[in-house]
Amino acid sequence: MATQQDRNLLAVIGDEDSVTGLLLAGIGNVGQDQKKNFLVVDSKTQIPVIEQAFEEFTTRKDIAILLINQHIAEKIRPMVDKYQAAFPALLEIPSKDHPYDPSKDSILKRVQKLFGE
Fold first, then answer.
1. Quick one: fold of 7-113?
2. NCBIfam families of this UniProt entry (predicted)?
């Protein structure tokens, strides 16, 4: 059984610039089973590939936080909205070409609902 202490990685699903920046910051990891903790999404990336990475990262026991570019989260919005687990925490982040839009952030919507806003 995994504990919170076992969750020591960040994962990212993002465009090339976002993933490259985060990898340069040191979040990259390739496990002994050759599983990576990141997915670079471009215009050719099929939605099932994004969904598979999201499913894998949200079920892995070594990931504490999953970062996903908001414009990519929009492509799999039903999965993102359905995700409710505390770990890994899911955070939607902006990208260089797509600014953050609070009205699309499912986590922010839940918090606002909780506080009656």
1. Rossmann fold (3.40.50)
2. V_ATP_synt_F (TIGR01101)
Write out pLDDT tens, residues 94-116.
Answer: 998 888 887 787 777 777 777 87
CA distances 27 to 10, 19, 23, 101, 105, Å, are: 6, 9, 5, 25, 23
The residue ranges of every structural domain in the chain are: 7-113
89: helix, strand or coil = strand
Cβ atoms of 40 and 14 within 8 Å: the answer is yes
Residues making up the chain, counted from first to last: 117
Residues of the chain with pLDDT under 70: 1-4, 117
Do 88 and 64 meet the contact criterion of CB atoms below 8 Å apart?
Answer: yes
Tokens of 117: 């806003």
Which token pair is 61? 């026991």
Supply the pLDDT for residue 101. 83
